[in-house]
């Protein structure tokens, strides 16, 4: 995944006050960031567990459980950020994790 500036927008609950964003230099770094966000949540929920494992379905459930998640990815051809929904994020996560597994 090329070095395309990527902003992940998310809202953790229906409250607008939970809106936030994470800024990355590439799609790949953004996918690492989403995984890291989920891993931190798992550690917060299971502080006594040393080694936490999860599968892609768990990660998808986490994303689906958020009030909102989307991405803005910079496209150099049009010199603008293009919006992508949570389904796109899940597809990119799958591709990213599959690449890391090989």
TrEMBL record:
<comment type="function">
    <text>May have a role in the cell cycle.</text>
</comment>
<protein>
    <recommendedName>
        <fullName>Enhancer of rudimentary homolog</fullName>
    </recommendedName>
</protein>
<comment type="similarity">
    <text>Belongs to the E(R) family.</text>
</comment>
<keyword id="KW-0131">Cell cycle</keyword>
<dbReference type="Pfam" id="PF01133">
    <property type="entry name" value="ER"/>
</dbReference>
<dbReference type="InterPro" id="IPR000781">
    <property type="entry name" value="ERH"/>
</dbReference>
<dbReference type="InterPro" id="IPR035912">
    <property type="entry name" value="EHR_sf"/>
</dbReference>
